[in-house]
Amino acid sequence: MAQTDRAVVIGGGIGGLAAAAALYRAGRDVTVLERARSLDPAGAAISLAPNALRALDVLGIGDEIRDLAAWQGDGGLRTPGGRWLSRTSAEATAARFGGPLVLLARATLVDRLAALLPPGAVRTAVTAALADPGDGRRPARVSTGDDELEAELVVGADGINSRVRAALFPLHPGPVYSGFTTWRMLIPVPGVEFASHETWGRGRMWGTHPLKDGRVYAYAAAMTPAGGRAPDDEKAELLRRFGDWHAPVPAVLAAARPEDVLRHDVHHIATPLPACHLGRVALLGDAAHAMPPTLGQGGNQALEDAVVLAHHTDELAAYTAARLPRTTAITRRAVQAARLNMTANPAAIAVRNLAIAALSKAGPALFLRGFDGIADWRPPYAAVEAHGGKREREST
């Protein structure tokens, strides 16, 4: 029997679960179809800026996440030799954007989002395909191979290689290689104290940040041809590229096991989609606007998408109007940031470092300026006062 009040979400990552939670709070019957056998997320940790925390306030878990996460901002930008180019503080971040920048394990966020859904709402090990996007007169249809679901709304949250996006816009060129690969790890590093930092080298970068649970989140990136892999293992590759950088980089690498290191090439959607919806189907997150991680906004923008979509389910054109210009602009800024921090030209690096140091002495650090117009976003409707934002209100 058709359930036309149903919302079907294809993809059980952060964006898909957040969309399902937002739609469930809005009174929808939601079903999440996830291809993997579990919701265990790929990746290590996620940085949540104030804009994402405001989206989580709408879902009722903003303050819970603030409590679980490590507040960031006490640190800055360094050179491979250890010289500080720019420094800032958690207090400065909160003062500028009305809330903190926080870091926590992706698995923690996924667990909290999944807990917002009713039992049975998430179905794993299901390969879903869009059979019909529907229109104003008929529902959308999703095929699972064994079954077909009709829905008033289908959400394509199936990632950068989205099959839903390809079905909606078959002529779109899809994602392109961003020019660099990344490594990530989330590990304990006993006995090592450090300030959070990101370090920019010649065509390479490294970041190290503590989590509240005592573990360390470290990430690295390097300009390299697509599809490359280490001849031995990825820890050895990191040692070759970063082993002589300033502390605590060598200690983090010493504490890591080869199996702790995740490596992924970075791709982004360089050509914006014509819309974020078609028929009764909406796209969100990487399926709609995959971007380089250089602004840390991929997951943050997916959370924004989720609450905005729940606000505009009766008029998906309004969802596109609200999201497409913003995410297109942020993607372009992330690409520009990658060009800045991943340059391999020695002269450009010297000019860049001098400019960063001078700008940071004259006013807010470059780290903070990079979030202007991004971290200060607020939902298109007020979060229910009883459901979060207390920490943000206290900081303003």
TrEMBL record:
The keyword Heme does not apply. One of its GO terms (molecular function) is monooxygenase activity. Residues 7-311 form the FAD-binding domain. InterPro entries: FAD-bd, FAD-dep_Monooxygenase_BioMet, FAD/NAD-bd_sf. It comes from the Bacteria. Keywords: Monooxygenase, Oxidoreductase. PANTHER family: MONOOXYGENASE, PUTATIVE (AFU_ORTHOLOGUE AFUA_6G14510)-RELATED. This is Monooxygenase. It comes from Streptomyces fodineus.
